[in-house]
Automatic annotation (TrEMBL), chain A:
This is NADH-quinone oxidoreductase subunit L. Residues 136-429 form the NADH:quinone oxidoreductase/Mrp antiporter transmembrane domain. Keywords: Membrane, Transmembrane, Transmembrane helix. It is a multi-pass membrane protein.
UniProtKB/TrEMBL annotation, chain C:
This is NADH-quinone oxidoreductase subunit J. The chain crosses the membrane at residues 12-32, 39-56, 62-84, 96-120, 140-167. Keywords: Cell membrane, Membrane, NAD, Oxidoreductase, Quinone, Transmembrane, Transmembrane helix. NDH-1 shuttles electrons from NADH, via FMN and iron-sulfur (Fe-S) centers, to quinones in the respiratory chain. Couples the redox reaction to proton translocation (for every two electrons transferred, four hydrogen ions are translocated across the cytoplasmic membrane), and thus conserves the redox energy in a proton gradient. PANTHER family: NADH-UBIQUINONE OXIDOREDUCTASE CHAIN 6 (PTHR33269).
Length: 625, 102, 174
């Protein structure tokens, strides 16, 4: 059955782009209408994406490639095209759905902001970039959209640029991800150099790195390329050690946090690894690196999440941790697991962020110690947030359980010790999510705003409800006894790593974590400061995020700043000094000439005499040296 | 070592003194006189060469005669110009004549 | 280089005396305070130079020198001084920078000239001047140098008329 809608896939990113263009051109005069326009554009994209995805699910599964030639350099031609695969179709749906809900939510959240049309223009551009990245059919085009995504995140994180923290966070996000981007760029250049015919499209990549015709590119180069690509992915997806920008990006408006953390920015890194997975598969060392970094990031960020007091920062570290899970899944060779977790994570993390935004909207603070007792006042937010938290903690039968279970099962089958690490991280995840949930919604109101908190308007709660529903049901797309999503994505019906042990352990750690959280923060059976009083050093270490920021400041920022200062000093004193010297010399000669031109013949005569002497000495005196 | 070098040295001394006078004296009449002194030093050279040169001839003396004539003409015109200037500016100080600057 | 092995002949003695007179006159002309004294001191130098011309067997030139410089130019200058009612006194050292630089420049120039004179080698003259110089000059002036002579006379006339015209025109103005 021939595909009908896939040739029109390019329209999916086109709608948000048109919205962006219109908003940029006429934003000032549109204001409120512009916001609705952007939302409508995203909605059209969502509808088209759904149509494409449904069409592909029901039959027409062959990949569609379209586009035109962009550049021709000698024999090398660079296409400007798009490719619709099942993976791309899934990503289209996820991105457009989250983007649409975020747009809808922002209509309420950003109401009254002076620059609302600018905000929606940025969001549209962000959506456009991410959709273009998903559809790109070669690495160079992907890289262009990759950078566009980076720019948009910079613009949106620093949207409230009046706040110095927001400015700093935007700069940090941009610079840190740039380190990863350079890795990706070098990887692309290496691929361009080593690939036959300099092909950069994904189909060629797949063919060249296929184990059956291996040896086209040596193992060392393959590992190098894979690691460089992973560096780019780590920068975007906030993997250790480039995770530092992601929590700081919380300075942006909350809907943007949801968009960045759920659908666009951080998903781009995982998506990149999935897209170039053939390269990784060709190198065992690269796979090991990805798995170990992923596992380490998962547990590392989860422990930090335990000690944070900012509601959005807790969620940010949970995102870092969950992205670590996805990388872990990729490292142990389970693309379906990673994509499945990306898919479910997009829903419940967007849900959690939007719920957090709803809470912040109500109480005007982000410190969870000043919240509490909001459950009775904000019923919808509390219920949906609770579903999201349970889903993230991996409690069955919610979505997060199935995807996390898939990852853990894959890890158990591949390397058992990674499974242990993942299980411990899952326990911490449940613990900090229960802490967050109980502190915010249970107990008595502690802050001054808590008592008067009101439920958010319908335009904000509607996305919460939609996402909550998805967070419940999305997991059934790929259960251990029904690997439909995995088959649909990879195209082969390989047996999933269904494992009773994995299910039991993940359920157990999830429930245990939640139970301990309930004991500590609701029942009070264990005193809250039992840990901080016994081990103040550990708690402090976690609160300060393992001093990574301080370490980077000491290791990189200060030497670079010193170098910059030295170069500035060189510039102001040596370079500018030389320039000033030239200027002063010309000025001095001019002044001397002015004094000389005083109209008196005797002065002119004197100058002539001196010139004659100099001339004679210069000409006749040459014979003496 | 002939007398020629002595004459030439004397002429150089006089020439330099005359030049110094031209450059430093404020009174324009003395400046004119210093110029005459320089011309005279040149005349001395011409006459000395006419006797002690390789080919002694009267040409040098005739040349110095012409020089004197021209110097006399120059002195006459110079004095006339100075008088005109004096009428317009009421001074003969060389450092107050700075029309060249305008 | 400076080999002063000079025969103390009568000519040299006369040269020495006259050159000292010329230099002293010139130096005094530079250093006197009154303008009239300067002019007279320069007249003394011109007379000394006339003596030197005689030593050089240029009697006619010496005669013209006395006639022209001492008799005409110096007197003309003194008339000029009187007519311009100068500030009689030369103001002492009013432009130190100019004077210092001029002194240095002139000394350097003299050094160069002196070095050139000492470094040059002058071959001995191949012949002697005729005894009756004046006669020979007269012959030359009216034969070989007739045209320059006439031109110089024209120049003198023009200068004379010009000087009169210059000095006179301003008088008619008021």
């Amino acid at each position: 059955m021939a595909t009908v809608f896939s040739p029109y896939a390019w329209l999916v990113p086109a709608f948000p782009f048109v919205a962006f263009a219109v908003l940029t051109a006429f934003g000032r005069s549109l204001s409120r209408t512009g916001a609705w326009l952007a939302t409508a554009g995203t909605f059209l994209s969502l509808v088209l994406s759904l149509v494409i995805a449904i069409e592909r699910m029901t039959g027409a599964a062959e990949d569609y490639r379209g586009g035109y030639e962009w550049l021709r350099i000698g024999d090398f031609s660079l296409p400007f095209g798009f490719e619709v695969t099942n993976l791309a179709a899934l990503m289209l749906v996820v991105v457009t759905l989250v983007a649409f809900l975020v747009n809808l939510y922002s209509l309420g959240y950003m109401k009254g902001d002076d620059r609302i049309s600018v905000f929606f223009a940025y969001v549209s551009l962000f959506t456009f970039s991410m959709l273009g990245l998903v559809l790109a059919d070669n690495l160079l085009l992907l890289y262009i959209f990759w950078e566009l995504v980076g720019v948009c995140s910079f613009l949106l994180v620093g949207f409230w640029y009046q706040k110095p923290e927001a400015k700093a966070a935007a700069k940090k996000a941009f610079i840190v991800t740039r380190i990863g981007d350079i890795g990706l760029l070098i990887a692309i250049l290496l691929l361009f150099w080593y690939m036959p015919d300099h092909a950069l499209d994904f189909v060629s990549l797949h063919n060249v790195f296929d184990p059956q015709n291996g040896g086209t590119i040596s193992l060392g180069i393959t590992t190098l390329i894979a690691l460089l690509i992973f560096l780019g992915a780590a920068g975007k997806s906030g993997q250790f050690p480039l995770h530092v920008w992601l929590p700081d990006a919380m300075e942006g408006p909350t809907p943007i946090s949801a968009l960045i953390h759920a659908a666009t920015m951080v998903a781009a890194g995982v998506f990149l690894v999935v897209r170039t997975f053939d390269v990784f598969e060709a190198s065992q060392a690269a796979m090991d690196t990805v798995a170990i970094i992923g596992a380490f990031t998962a547990i590392f960020a989860a422990t930090i999440g335990l000690a944070q007091n900012d509601i959005k920062r807790v969620l940010a570290y949970s995102t870092v941790s969950q992205l670590g899970y996805m990388m872990l899944a990729l490292g142990v060779g389970s693309v379906p697991g990673a994509m499945f977790h990306l898919f479910t994570h997009a829903f419940f993390k967007a849900l959690l962020f939007l719920g957090a935004g709803s809470v912040i909207h109500a109480v005007h603070t982000q410190d969870i110690r000043e919240m509490g007792g909001l459950g009775r006042r904000m019923k919808i937010t509390a219920w949906t947030f609770g579903i999201g938290a349970l889903s993230l903690s991996g409690i069955p039968p919610l979505a997060g359980f199935w995807s996390k279970d898939a990852i853990l099962a894959a890890a158990l089958a591949d390397r058992p010790w990674l499974f242990v690490v993942g299980a411990i991280a899952a326990f911490f995840t449940a613990l900090y999510m229960s802490r967050l949930f109980f502190l915010v919604f249970f107990g008595k109101p502690r802050g001054e705003h808590g008592a008067q908190a009101k439920e958010s308007p319908g335009v904000m709660t509607f996305p919460l409800l939609v996402l909550a529903a998805l967070a419940v049901v999305a997991g059934f797309a790929n259960t251990p006894w029904n690997g439909w999503l995995g088959q649909w994505l990879t195209g082969n019906a390989e047996a999933d790593h269904a494992s009773a042990l994995a299910i039991v352990v993940s359920v157990a750690v999830g429930l245990l974590g939640f139970y301990i959280g309930w004991l500590v923060y609701v029942k009070g059976a264990v005193r809250r400061d039992v840990l901080s009083s016994r081990l103040p050093g550990v708690v402090r270490l976690l609160e300060r995020k393992y001093y990574i920021d301080e370490l980077y400041a000491w290791l990189f920022v200060r030497p670079l700043r010193a170098l910059g200062d030295a170069l500035t000093a060189f510039d102001t004193h040596v370079v500018d000094g030389a320039v000033r010297l030239v200027g002063a010399a010309a000025n001095g000669i001019g002044k001397l000439n002015t004094r000389l031109q005083n109209g008196q013949l005797q002065t002119y005569g004197l100058a002539g005499l001196l010139a004659l002497v100099v001339l004679v000495v210069a000409i006749a005196g040459r014979r003496f040296w | 070592m002939s007398m020629l070098a002595s004459y030439l040295t004397l002429a150089a001394v006089l020439f330099c003194i005359g030049f110094y006078g031209v450059l430093t004296k404020r009174n324009a009449i003395i400046v004119l006189l210093s110029i005459e002194l320089m011309l005279n030093a040149v005349n001395l050279n011409l006459v000395a060469f006419s006797k002690y040169g390789v080919n002694p001839a009267l040409t040098g003396q005739i040349f110095s005669l012409f020089t004197m004539t021209v110097a006399a003409a120059e002195a006459a015109v110079g004095i006339a110009v100075l008088i005109v200037l004096y009428r317009s500016k009421a001074t003969v100080n060389a450092d107050e004549f700075d029309e060249l600057r305008r | 280089m400076l080999n002063f092995n000079i025969d103390f002949t009568g000519e040299f003695f006369a040269f020495f005396l006259l050159s000292v007179c010329a230099i002293v006159g010139a130096v005094l002309a530079i250093n006197f305070a009154k303008v009239v004294h300067m002019a007279l001191s320069l007249a003394f130098t011109f007379v000394s130079l006339a003596g030197l011309f005689i030593l050089l067997q240029a009697e006619f030139v010496a005669f013209v020198q006395v006639l022209l410089y001492v008799g005409a130019v110096t007197i003309l200058m003194i008339f000029g001084i009187m007519m311009t009612k100068h500030q009689d006194e030369e103001k002492a050292r009013s432009r130190p920078l100019l004077e210092t630089l001029a002194a240095i420049g002139c000394l350097c120039l003299f050094g160069i000239l002196f070095y050139a004179i000492r470094a040059a080698s002058f071959p001995l003259p191949a012949a002697k001047l005729p005894d009756n110089n004046t006669l020979e000059i007269g012959k030359l002036l009216y034969s070989a140098y007739a045209i320059p002579f006439e031109l110089v006379s024209v120049l003198l006339t023009v200068a004379f008329i010009g000087a009169v015209a210059l000095a006179k025109r301003e008088e008619e103005k008021p």
